[in-house]
Design goal:
The complex is a heterodimer. Chain A has strands at 5-7, 10-13, 19-24, 31-38, 42-50, 53-57, 64-68, 74-78, 87-94, 105-106, 110-114. Chain A is mainly beta. In chain A, strands 2, 4, 5, 6, 9, 10 and 11 form a seven-stranded mixed β-sheet that branches. Chain A has a four-stranded antiparallel β-sheet with strand order 1-3-8-7, with no helix packed on it. By secondary structure, chain B is mostly beta strands. In chain B, 0% of the residues lie in helices and 51% in strands. Chain B has strands at residues 3-5, 10-14, 19-21, 24-26, 32-38, 44-50, 56-58, 64-68, 73-78, 87-94, 103-105, 109-114. In chain B, strands 2, 5, 6, 10, 11 and 12 form a six-stranded mixed β-sheet that branches. Chain B has a four-stranded antiparallel β-sheet with strand order 3-9-8-7, with no helix packed on it. In chain B, strands 1-4 form a two-stranded antiparallel sheet. Classes of the chains: A mainly beta, B mainly beta. Chain A binds chain B through residues 4, 6, 31-33, 35, 42-43, 45, 48, 50, 55-56, 58, 90, 92, 94, 97-109, 111, and chain B through 32, 34, 36, 41-46, 49, 51-52, 90, 94, 96-108.
């Protein structure tokens, strides 16, 4: 069974550009969440999608957005990149929303560097 | 507000020694509790989880954790550490009755293992 796949693994962008990151969840998983990991702030929740709808959102500016497709694949977009957006972006998938006795599986992440 | 505290930023142990990583949480009710491990440049791997029932839970790689409601703690233990256990460890909580997609993480404990 394939795990959570994130593409690309590494990205270098220039300040002011925009970027799109992709996440393919485990087959059958319908919930996809995104996290930003930085040395200064640790792991911070960005948003969660379930059935193509954003169900939960963390405390990030509107430059951070996302979407989920009918096959549960998800993308996140960051517009007008800032140096502080340099981070490891992690995607996690889980079987269903609000279901007990389940768990979140994480991808290997996309390392974004803004120069 | 939910929060997770891992008081130890960095722990160093000798191979074969026992290990305990501390985790305290603040939450209005009993949350779902998790321990994840992260190797450099990688995503998060679930070590173990607590949802309900027996407060001592067993995980992969010989790890266990004990939920203590009175102390709001969920400490991770291993009786004999192997050099391959060197990594960063994260404690996380998720809300019951809500989406598992939003996890609150501690700042992590970096484990160094001396040969």
């Amino acid at each position: 069974k394939a795990g959570v796949t994130q593409t690309p693994r590494y990205l270098i962008k220039t300040r002011g550009q925009q970027v799109t990151l992709s996440c393919s969840p485990i087959s059958g998983h319908r919930s996809v969440s995104w996290y930003q990991q930085t040395p200064g702030q640790g792991l911070q929740f960005l948003f969660e999608y379930f059935s193509e709808t954003q169900r939960n959102k963390g405390n990030f500016p509107g430059r951070f957005s996302g979407r989920q497709f009918s096959n549960s694949r998800s993308e996140m977009n960051v517009s007008t990149l800032e140096l502080g957006d340099s981070a490891l972006y992690l995607c996690a998938s889980s079987l269903a929303r609000g279901q007990g006795n389940t768990e979140a599986f994480f991808g290997q992440g996309t390392r974004l560097t803004v120069v | 507000a939910q929060s997770v505290t891992q008081p130890d930023i960095h722990i160093t142990v000798s191979e074969g020694a026992s290990l305990e990583l501390r985790c305290n949480y603040s939450y209005g009710a009993t949350p779902y509790l998790f321990w994840y491990v992260q190797s450099p440049g990688q995503g998060l791997q679930l070590l173990l989880k607590y949802f309900s029932g027996d407060t001592l839970v067993q995980g992969i790689k010989g790890f266990e954790a004990e939920f203590k409601r009175s102390q709001s703690s969920f400490n991770l233990r291993k009786p004999s550490v192997h050099w391959s256990d060197a990594a960063e460890y994260f404690c996380a909580v998720g809300a019951r009755g809500s989406t598992l997609g939003r996890l609150y993480f501690g700042r992590g404990t970096q484990l160094t293992v001396w040969p």
